[in-house]
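Question:
Now give any protein.
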Amino acid sequence: MTVSESTNQHRRESPHSVACGVITVSDTRTMETDTGGKLLAEMLEQFGHRVLVRDLIPDEPERMRTLISSWLVRGDLEAILMTGGTGIGQRDQTFETISALLTKPLPGYGEIFRMLSYADIGPAAMLSRAIGGTIGQTILLTMPGSRAAVQLAVEKLIGPELGHLVREATR
């Protein structure tokens, strides 16, 4: 069996619909003005996934940890997707907070996201600190808060591969 045959078999055996939670990290947006989080939820559903819960919180590590912990104990979420707080500004703390929580980092997620971003925005792609991995058996992926970044992440990475990620994380 070749690698592509094996990957295709894994995808066929993967869930086609993943139960997701969406978190927007922002000090300035509200649920009404959060176009990135709204787009993320809509696109996940277009890929056949289910968004069970969505929230918006300020860029504060304790608030992130508390919300993620409460979602993990629910037991019904297979993936948590976060948008915002991934830059290098003084208030951007998503990377540091999530890095400390991950039990198994997926460095390729951030690397590929930045590579794809580079094709669109050039060297400014290095400013993104998108990160992903697992917390136990739950997938957690972050991305910048802009609509363009959300669209890129979901179209090229998350949408096509989320079921496979969940399959591997729960084996």
The beta strands are 19-25, 50-57, 79-83, 104-105, 132-135, 138-143.
